[in-house]
Amino acid sequence: MSAIVATYEIRGDDRRARAEALAVEQSHELPTDLAPEPALRSLAHVVSFEAGSEFDTAVVEYPEELAGGELAQLLVHLIGNVSLQDGIRLVELEVPESLAAAVGGGPPLGAAGIRRVLGVDDRPLLATALKPVGLEPADLAAMASKLAWGLDVIKDDQGLANQPWAPFRERVLRVTEAVRETNAASGRRARYFPAVAGPFEQFEERLRFAADAGADGVLLMPGVTGFDSVRFAATVLPEDAIIMAHPSFLGGFTASSTHGISPEVLFGPIMRLARADTVIFPSAGGRFSLTVEQCRGIAEQSRRPFAGLEASLPAPGGGMSVDRIGELVELYGRDVLLLIGSDLHRGGDLRASAEAFLEAAQTVR
Amino acid sequence: MSAIVATYEIRGDDRRARAEALAVEQSHELPTDLAPEPALRSLAHVVSFEAGSEFDTAVVEYPEELAGGELAQLLVHLIGNVSLQDGIRLVELEVPESLAAAVGGGPPLGAAGIRRVLGVDDRPLLATALKPVGLEPADLAAMASKLAWGLDVIKDDQGLANQPWAPFRERVLRVTEAVRETNAASGRRARYFPAVAGPFEQFEERLRFAADAGADGVLLMPGVTGFDSVRFAATVLPEDAIIMAHPSFLGGFTASSTHGISPEVLFGPIMRLARADTVIFPSAGGRFSLTVEQCRGIAEQSRRPFAGLEASLPAPGGGMSVDRIGELVELYGRDVLLLIGSDLHRGGDLRASAEAFLEAAQTVR
């Protein structure tokens, strides 16, 4: 395949015309009757169109060269301008293997690599977040040292940045040390992922600081720092570092069903192209609004053959509780990273809660 | 003022409870009954709530320290997670002057500075884009040399990146040279703004290359490279360079009226915080979907007193034609940058079209 193939749902009036206009808007951005002949090589085309009731479906082929081997530019062409139009929604994506390779070759570890470096063969993997924002590094470290008795991944809440209460560097040093100490006592391989966003000119420096401190993974927010920042992080971090993507500031694309990008494509192939090893998304049944069907679709899109890339590991979160593990494994399968939040804090004893979570994950069928 | 004050429209059921949950979600992200006492310093609060019919309105105050002096983190707290929920929409924003200063102090030139460096006192300013994608640098340069007879700003189409047909560096060199030659002949001060997105690790390098080539301005896409990349660009570029922001990949926030960010706030205060001197948005009456009222609101939000920052210059575009100048000036006022696209190409003679556009702008009342 040498074309980028994108499928869109089209709503509203004159759907066929909207699809044709989309193909021009997202490639030439000049009516084709005004475009000089040599420029035709860059033009996208509607290659199939299927009428429906609620929406019609258009498949558009873009020349691979339009992306210029750059992830940011691929996104510009897939949905950049038409993201501003209600009634157009990106719902499927295929890209040539050559393009996926040019933008970095996908998740460095992927789902299988995450299991390998964490040393967990079969059970669902377990993660939680350090919060609330406002605690000091010593408090967060104390929390992490307890959580590391049961969790595989302890990540910063996305609300933790470089606030005066818990500056980035001090937090990273204290929490990595705390997790290391618990691991030495427990024989486990829990990991801490600092949230790295912050000023553009400090992004690489924070990544390197986290890796040097022994963080072995990071939490990134492509909605805030750009999808290409995730790809870049994969080029900076050590080989066995895990890249976890967080959906903060991405919801504009998914909160309505009539525009934007389907959550399946956004949290599946687009995140795999951006080189995320594991991808957080709001699970059905929590305080956010994805359906069970969408969540199952995200899991499928994270695993299906796509441009020769590794599978990413789905990390459903939001309103999750220990007693839902069975239900969640039924929905996502065992190859999942379950992100649990406030429920862990309810028992009062964080270490006991973390161990109970682990026990539940080890025994779930 | 020492708080960040954000106003949200709340739709759906249990609106008051949604507002309270939002304040916790976007600050602590842990139910307050589980949060240790010292963390209360980071908690946001609903400070007013007004019931309505279509929606209720909640004003939420966040402690300034939550942003940690970082633009990316401010966005995480304003709308990061709740962007994933339909029924919550950010519609007004105030931030303390100290925070606005900490994130760079707003547009380096702003609307007044743009007029100063372009040497245009009173009339509407004029811009267009080099397109279609697929042309070679020599073709684009030839196009620019004609357009520079009438336009103030000739920007790359956002679809131009580093494609094989027109690699970034060659394009920037050829087009800046062409515009410089026309300026020498015309006595005008037309400027060329290359589109800079591309790989994260090349972002600064491309900015510097553009400035060294004499580009005097850039086109940036915060939706693609992150809002903080725009702020960063302002720290790298020469003092009189103009930063133009493009709305590509931002439409998820604005395409529906029931979630995300109102276009007035997104293209107004948020872009000013990101240090954009001029902000492109889809004008009413074109092929995108903003209303006249929203467009007027964007213009107001780009000019109103906000955290001690310069005004940005609204740059409405999309489906614009020369014969609409009067109507557009009536809508936006004269302090506007009119972005015209394919209509300039309709006449066949680009220089004549550009001169006619200038003539129309000079005579509009």
Automatic annotation (TrEMBL), chains A, B:
Lineage top rank: taxon: Bacteria
Ribulose bisphosphate carboxylase large subunit C-terminal domain sequence ranges: 113-342
Chain segments annotated as coiled-coil in the UniProt record: none
InterPro entries recorded: RuBisCO, RuBisCO_lsu_C, RuBisCO_lsu_C_sf, RuBisCO_lsu_N_sf
A Pfam short name: RuBisCO_large
Protein name: RuBisCO large subunit C-terminal-like domain-containing protein
Organism: Antiquaquibacter soli
Taxonomic lineage from the root: Bacteria, Bacillati, Actinomycetota, Actinomycetes, Micrococcales
